[in-house]
Design goal:
This protein is mainly alpha-helical. The chain has 25 helices and 4 strands. The strands form 2 sheets. The chain has a two-stranded antiparallel sheet.
Length: 511
């Protein structure tokens, strides 16, 4: 019987390896095939037979409507056993010794892929995964495995990410009981080859070093996604300031690295920014508290290299012109909070985004500078994008309404001012340093002529009379004369007026 399922599995695998949608008419057959494959996998067959069955089950597990047999406790335990996770604690320590043969490693990888699909597509499987403590087995695996086959680590991290994303109870257990934040931090240190030269300072990457290998980058991305889930809520109590500042330092290191392609580098930086946005703002000083190359002390000796990387990332996301909500707002939020609470960060960003104003004859939303791009976003149709861009510029202006209007114009800033109750002017609630920005001579001379609504000097309207002939002027004056002549007044001076006053005075008084 099992040979029949294995043969059918081979046929299904080669015919449907790239299939992700299925004909509803075959649901019953596919469901029974899932059950048969699990029966075969539950017996002691060789790794080649197990791999074939798992590859077939992996394809079937893309169809959430046939996962009834797999989402049971028995089905999940079969897969967990083949992935060396069964029992929660025994798989991690023995994986290296058991999976020396390629075929056995292939079984582990295919079982992990099946678990990822099943957990993603089946709520029942998510519940069973929590009950049988898959997360504990995954943490044991990651504790014990520092080298070995790339895919074993990759899909272990991916399954951990899925469980932490879909099950809040698993997320809490990972943080409190399994200390997964520290574990994933160690995974990142190892994967990114972080070498510490200070308490929260990683050695800078060698300019001549090769980019991060593609496999290391993939594992790092999965670890970052899982860490993001674990730091969504307040982590200060469970993980402590030291752990979170350590993560911040690793994120700084990652932001200074390059991968083998520009798109992969952008993806890595995006995950790093998302994670940094979850951390307490008190940790952000780690990003700039690094010795400056060349000994420049312009920003109190703080290193602004990573801040420039974040600004470049922000501008690149603006230029893409799509998916602003997910792609742009996280970096805007991070830069806003960093500017609000780190004076040196705000000063540096303002020099890049809002340099001293010289061009005052063009509307602030027109042009290709970073300021122009951000001002355009202040009137974006998406409320979240609009608010994020406006808040960022407002903080750069030290939450001073007059300073904001100088750079954006009243029309662009109106939405923020209404939301903050600052239409009449004033400041936000955050306290900033007292140093004032000096205006350029160009701005000072043009300031009286700037339209506060549009934020620029408007060209004077042409005088229509200048181009008229004398006959045209006389004709227009005659046309306007009746409209400009006032009606006679009851109290106007002259003979008629006097008579009216006399007549009115001679009338008998009425009592």
């Amino acid at each position: 019987m099992h040979l029949t399922f294995v043969s059918l599995g081979i046929v299904l695998y080669f015919q449907n390896n790239l299939t992700f949608t299925f004909d509803p008419k075959g649901e019953d057959l596919r469901s029974r095939l899932c059950q048969g494959l699990l029966t075969v996998l539950g017996r002691q067959f060789g790794p080649r037979c197990q791999s074939t069955c798992l590859e077939t089950l992996r394809i079937l597990s893309r169809d959430k409507r046939v996962l009834g047999p797999v989402g049971t406790r028995e089905g999940m335990l079969v897969l967990a056993g083949l992935a060396r996770l069964r029992g929660g604690t025994e798989g991690g320590d023995s994986l290296q010794g058991e999976v020396q043969i390629e075929e056995k490693e292939r079984v582990v990888v295919e079982a992990l892929k099946c678990l990822c699909n099943v957990v993603f597509n089946s709520a029942a499987a998510q519940q069973v995964g929590a009950d049988v403590q898959l997360a504990r087995g995954l943490c044991a695996r990651l504790h014990a495995t520092r080298t070995g086959r790339h895919e074993v680590g990759l899909f272990s991290l991916r399954l951990l990410f899925l469980l932490s994303a879909l099950r809040p109870d698993v997320r809490g257990a990972l943080r409190r009981e399994l200390r997964a934040v520290g574990l994933l931090t160690e995974v990142l240190e190892c994967t990114l080859d972080v070498r510490w030269v200070g308490p929260y300072e990683a050695a800078p990457p060698d300019p001549q070093a090769l980019p991060i290998p593609a496999e290391d980058n993939e594992r790092a991305m999965e670890a970052l996604k899982a860490l993001f889930n674990l730091t969504l809520s307040d982590t200060s109590d469970e993980d402590g300031d030291h752990q979170l500042r350590l993560i911040t330092a690793i994120m700084r290191h990652l932001l200074m690295l390059k991968t083998q392609t520009e798109d992969k580098t952008e993806e890595a930086h995006s995950h790093a920014i998302n994670l940094l946005s979850n951390l307490p703002v008190s940790c952000l000083d780690v990003l700039i508290d690094v010795p400056v190359q060349g000994g420049q002390d312009e920003y109190s000796g703080k290193n602004m290299d990573v801040v420039q990387v974040l600004l470049d990332f922000m501008e690149k996301r603006i230029d893409k012109g799509a998916n602003y909500k997910e792609g742009l707002t996280p970096v805007l939020s991070l830069l806003t909070e960093g500017s609000r609470y780190q004076r040196e960060i705000r000063r540096y960003i303002k020099t890049q985004v809002l340099p001293p104003l010289k061009e005052v004859k063009v509307r602030p939303e027109i042009g290709s500078t970073v300021r122009n791009k951000l001002v355009r976003l202040m009137t974006h149709v998406d409320m979240g994008v609009k608010q994020s861009a406006a808040e960022f510029l407002f903080v750069l202006c030290k939450e001073n309404v007059n300073n904001l209007l100088k750079y954006t114009g009243y029309g662009n800033a109106a939405g923020l001012l209404v939301a903050r109750g600052l239409l009449a002017g004033g400041r936000g609630e955050t306290k900033y340093s007292d140093d004032e920005d000096s205006d350029t001579e160009e701005y000072k001379s043009a300031k009286p002529f700037i339209n506060p609504i549009t934020g620029h000097v408007e060209e004077p309207m042409p005088n229509p009379i200048e181009e008229m002939t004398e006959e045209q002027k006389e004709y227009e004056a005659q046309e306007l004369a009746p409209a400009l002549t006032p009606p006679p007044s009851l109290h106007s001076s002259g003979v008629d007026g006097s008579r009216r006053h006399v007549a009115a005075a001679s009338l008998p008084a009425r009592h």
